[in-house]
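Task: complex structure prediction.
Instruction: return structure tokens for all chains below.
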Amino acid sequence: MPQVKVGLIGFGTVGAGMVEVLINNRQLIEDRVGAEIVLKKIADLDIDSDRGVKIDTTFLTTDAMEIVNDPEIDIVVELMGGCDQAMEYILMAMEKGKHVVTANKALIAEYGKLLFEMAERYGVDIAFEASVAGGIPIIRVLKEGLAANQIKAVLAILNGTANYILTRMTGEGLSFDEALSIAKRLGYAEADPTLDIDGSDAAHKLTIVISLAFGFPFKYENVYKEGIDGVSPEDIRFAGEFGYCIKLLAIAREVDGDIEARVHPAFVPLDHILANVNEAYNAVYVEGDFTGPTLFYGLGAGRRPTGSAVVSDLIDIARNQVKGIARRVSPISFARPPAKELSLRPMDQIVTDYYFRFSAVDSPGVLSKISGILGANNISIASVIQKSRETHGSVPIVMLTHEAKESNVRKSLELIDKLGIVTEKTVLFRVEKKTGI
Amino acid sequence: MPQVKVGLIGFGTVGAGMVEVLINNRQLIEDRVGAEIVLKKIADLDIDSDRGVKIDTTFLTTDAMEIVNDPEIDIVVELMGGCDQAMEYILMAMEKGKHVVTANKALIAEYGKLLFEMAERYGVDIAFEASVAGGIPIIRVLKEGLAANQIKAVLAILNGTANYILTRMTGEGLSFDEALSIAKRLGYAEADPTLDIDGSDAAHKLTIVISLAFGFPFKYENVYKEGIDGVSPEDIRFAGEFGYCIKLLAIAREVDGDIEARVHPAFVPLDHILANVNEAYNAVYVEGDFTGPTLFYGLGAGRRPTGSAVVSDLIDIARNQVKGIARRVSPISFARPPAKELSLRPMDQIVTDYYFRFSAVDSPGVLSKISGILGANNISIASVIQKSRETHGSVPIVMLTHEAKESNVRKSLELIDKLGIVTEKTVLFRVEKKTGI
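Output:
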């Protein structure tokens, strides 16, 4: 039976998961692939800690170069994280004709273009299923399953920590801080959860998804980003009254040859399948021109799901190797640059529905003043709830608008927030209405 | 640019969808594949009807043998349906070294073993993404995306017609007949909807899913089957009171080295993601040993989604052809028979929770008699609703049980239905409790 030899750089959580899959499902994988996937060496600075997997300690080394330089190794798996050092090892491995598998979303999102070019130059595969949405095989879905489709829109819940926090806030009426501290205690959030909460992690993943869906290396800096720390129990409650919940969405949408790319908390209709994605689950909703709405759901993080995603890439490359080929499908699914490269639609040009929560003094004429400014800026109101109870000496006025342009919205809110009757900065959420589901 | 030439046998709904994808997304597909997928000939007995796609009429023929015998054609797409004639064309095409793409679920479910053997003998690919769940790329997910996993369970909504009918019954309290006639009027059900309603269609699809998930050609006859015509608005209402809805589920589950395979209406907890799959949508919930719960959702039928699934297979084979290979992944995802072939668990040996609706005379001691028989057969009751209002001179007693064995359930109900106090045959539904989602 042919053998495919693997070296692993980075023996952390995902690395241990990968090793566990290879040990537990060795027979199954051999049966499926018709080749043996042999783990030959593992490099990590820490070779002493117990990872809970049985591993021959002679496999372990602190020197990643032993893997990069080992002529027997066919595939290098990079799970060390970070950018500079990881990039260096990957490029050296490619130069030596080794295929690369990585879960490093920041690296792929920020340096994908270079990495894909180098992989092409050296004729090797680079695979990164584990970089987006853990156990959900969304990379393969975009590269192969939906390959016959023009992708029209992607709406995704790509950060399990943020989704867990919002689920707790919604279910139990907790504040953001309360939910965050529960998430930390239960291991859903790290000690420093900044990247999960401010949308950076989701933006990295969205960058990768866009590159695959639309066929060009999208720039991470071009993703508009807002975090969930501004979400309050009050807005979640009002969302519910209007028939919505609040989710941190990563959105890419083709609009008239432009592409929108944004990560922010958004109102999602309660009867949309995405509204039912709770706890630490991830989901990617993809609308193809022929498939229509599809959704791919599962655990977006964790040792076991992410480990199995890494191994699915090993299987893919092993299947190539059994046939004596490589690069059967290009890393971003396009054998050549697509005829139609989309240009970025600036954030102030997007058109969507909005939710506003105004804090205003409780006096007659307030609503008229506010709606006057909105009307003058082409923003029409779909529904309003005006509460009479006082909050800190002011009343909330909440409303949903019809479709409006972001630039008009910003201009209006700037004017409204200067009104004497308005007591606090107006809260804004974008409303993602049902898109065919 | 290399060309891959395709002949289509069967120019019906799905065939027209496939042609539409190839026309509309020609450029995109070329960019992705790096080859041109050229439709060379279409065979159908009816070459006159307008299918709403622009096609050079010189492509059309009434003689499928022109396609089978055309030495230029690389891939034969069989979309004529039926078994005997389709099989004949497919085998002849394979013999001539042509790859085969089909959407024919009955054919794959009932003759898959033979077809896969012949494909192996002739060294060609046979692909059938469109045979299960339309636009959802579930075949690829099982063969590749989740390939590192032992599949533990599949729970799927695989018939859009049945799901549409149950959605209408649940939403509007309609009877089965009322919902069916709406489904017919709106085109969700065919004139003869038998196969959709009695579970046969879902059972065909489940047979295919099992073969891929567990790696051996499962026998269609071994799928246990119950239709939805026995579902009443009353049971849907009681399900709601207990926190469930009723879905036609196709279930495959590995239990201690056995496999359960069954299609029947089942209680699904309202907070399970499957409970939120409504209208004509399909969804496949897959539990892998490492991924944990995953769900794949989309339109399970229709010209456009199914057409795009056919083209995803064409793309797959074209990508092989560009690399000069075939049979990179075996049709059922296993390069060799799996070490562990599961044996069928007979239906009377399954263990699950149950819902019973007894119709009994309204007198004291009834519940005691019924629960006595259940208790004597090791069936313990989880909750009971006893309504006082009379229905046709009897009262309904509904209950949920804890886990019980099907044989014990059947034995008990036989005894209970013979009691003088019981006025009608007891209604039974199986309850699929949350499995980790």
